[in-house]
Amino acid sequence: MAMLGKRRPPRPASNKSGLARQESAKQAPKAETSSEQVLIIERLAHDGRGVGHLPSGKAVFVDQALPGERIEIATHVTRKRFDEAHIRERLSTAADRVTPPCPHFGHCGGCDLQHLSVPAQREHKREVVRELLSRQGLTWQGDIDTLKSDSDAYRRRARLGVNVDREGQVLMGFRAQRSHRLVDIASCCVLVPELQALIAPLRDLLGSLKSPRDIGHIELLATPDTCVVVVRQLKEQPQDAERWKSFAQEQGVALGMRSGRDNVGHDSIDRERIDSDKLAKAKSQAGAPEAHWFGAPPVLNDTLTLAGFEPLTLEFSPGDFLQVNADVNQQMVAQVIQWLAPQKGQQLLDLYSGIGNFSLPIAATGAKVHAVEGNPAMVARLAANAHRHQLPVNGQQADLNSRESVNALLKVIPADAVILDPPRGGAESVCQALAKLSAKTHQRPRIAYVSCDPATLARDAAHLMHGGYRITRVVVADMFVHTAHMETLMLLEPSV
Q1: What gap in Å lies between CA 185 and CA 103, rounded to an integer?
Q2: What CATH class does 119-150+302-494 carry?
Q3: Where is the TRAM domain (predicted)?
Q4: How far is CA 210 from CA 75, 170, 213, 242, 441, in A?
Q5: Of residues 138, 135, 184, 179, the one with CA closest to residue 161
Q6: 469 appears as a binding residue in the annotation
C-alpha cells in the first residue's frame, strides 16, 4: 500500500524495446499536481465510494470517503474518463461518519460501508434505486420504505478462503476488495453468533493439519437445527481426516468434505445471488464431487414463521440458494403476501421459485401456485416441501432465460399475479414476454418483483411500463447491512 498513488521507478532496460518503453514513460503525462489532489466529496457512487471532481473536471472515485468531506487523495488507478483513489488525509469529517465496528475494515473486501452510519447507508440505498429508475426514464415520487433487521450479526452462510503464505503461516478469511489476495481474519461481526463461534476453533484446527495447503476453502451454514461445515480440499488427506472428525464432534456440527478442484463455485461473501441453474449445470459438466459426510448427511431445514400462518419448514441442500439474512427474508415474504393479497382459488405464478420461499406461504393462503425454477434438483425439493405441508403447489423446471420457453409458459398458465425473484441478471426475457402479452391480449397480472440488483430491476421495469404497467410500491430490503448491496421489492400493476 505504501506505493499506492506514487509513480514507480522504471525497470532497467535490458534491450532495445526496453529502452523504447523507458523513453515512452519519460514522455508520458505527469501526475496531477498537488494542488489538484484536494477534493470535496459530492456524493456516493452506487458501490459506496465517494465521488469528487478535480479542477480539470475529471471524476475521482475515492475509497471510504463520504459526501461533504474535504480530503487529500492519493490516486492509485488512472483511467481516461476517471481516476480511482484513496484518502491520504481527511481535512474535514462528515457528520454521518462512524467508527467501523470490525477490526478488519479497510482490509477485508466485505462490509465496505462500515464507516457510514446505518441510517445513512439505508438512505443511500434508497437514492440508488431512485437514480437507477431515473436512468431508465422512470420517475418514482412515492416513499421507499425499508425492511431491516435489528441485528448486524445477520449472515447465516459464508465461505472462508484458506491459504498458506511463503512463511508457512496458515491464513483463513475473505478476499481483499477488488483482489484475489486473502485477508486473514480473527472474527467477523456480521456472521450469526453460531458461525462466529466456529472461527477460532477452525483456525486452531487448520494450524494442526499435516497438509493445510490442500484446503481450498470452507463453507459455513447455520440453520435453526444445526451448523454445517463443508470443506473443499484439493485432494484427500487421510492423515487429517481424524482431526476433522474430532472437530465435528467437539463443535457439534455436520461436516462434509469435497475433494478436487472446483472452478465453478461461488464466494458467499460477495453478496451476489448465484444463478443456481447455471451453477448446477456447470458443476455437472465439471464433474464436481458430492460431499462426503462424517456420519449421516444432514437434513437441513429453513423455517418461515409469518403472522397468521402456521410455521412452514422448507427442506434444502447445502448447495441450494438461501437468503443469507433470515429475518429480512421473512419480512420480504410477508411484504409480497400483503401486496398481492392472494385469495382462495386464485392462480399465482412464482418464477425463479427456488425451494419454495414464496410459493409455500402463498399457497398456505389457499391460492393455487405454479412454481417454475431452472434447477431440477430444487424443483424436486420444492415439490417435496409442498407435499409435506399438503399445499397446492405445482412445480416445473424451465429455462426462464429463453424467450421461447417463457412465451410457451405464459400461454398455457394464466395467472392473476406473478412473483419474480431472479438472480442478478434479472428477468428481462420474462418481462419482455409479459409486456408483449399485455399489449396483445390485455392480460395484465399484478407483478411482485424481488431483485438483488436494482439496475436490472429498473431495466426490466421499463419493459413492463411500455407494456401497460405502472409502479405502485417500492421497498428496499437492507439484506446486507454495512455493504452497498441490497434487495429491492417492487409492485407493478396495470395502468388502467
Answers
A1: 9
A2: alpha beta
A3: 30-89
A4: 43, 12, 9, 11, 67
A5: 184
A6: no
Please tell me the number of Cα atoms within 13 Å of 109 on its side-chain side. Answer: 19
Q: Give, for 285, the enclosing helix (H) or strand (E).
A: helix 276-286
Amino acid of residue 264: V
Length of the chain measured in residues:
496
Measured distance CA(351)–CA(426) in Å, rounded = 11
CA 173, CA 162: separation in Å to the nearest integer? Answer: 7
Q: How far is the first Cα of the chain from the last one, in angstroms, to the nearest whole number? A: 58
Mapping DSSP to helix (H, G, I), strand (E, B) and coil, where does residue 197 land? helix
pLDDT digits (tens, 9 = 90+) for 184-209: 999 999 999 999 999 999 999 999 99
State how far Cα 362 lies from the chain centre. 25
Query: Does 2 score more than 90 pLDDT?
Result: no
CATH 2.60.120.260 is right for the domain spanning 16-90? no
Q: What is the CA radius of gyration of the chain?
A: 25
**What does the domain layout of the chain look like in residue ranges?**
16-90, 119-150+302-494, 157-293
The pTM score is 0.87
> CATH topology of 16-90 equal to that of 119-150+302-494?
no
Q: Which three cell numbers stand for residue 390?
A: 399438503
Q: Give the right CATH number for 157-293 from 2.30.29.170, 1.10.10.10, 3.40.50.720, 2.40.50.1070.
A: 2.40.50.1070
By the 8 A CB rule, do 119 and 139 touch? Answer: no
> Would you say 189 is a known binding-site residue?
no
pLDDT band at 367 (very low <50, low <70, confident <90, very high): very high
* Residue 102 known to bind ligand: yes
Q: Reply yes or no on whether 431 is catalytic.
A: no
Q: Is 227 annotated as a binding residue?
A: no
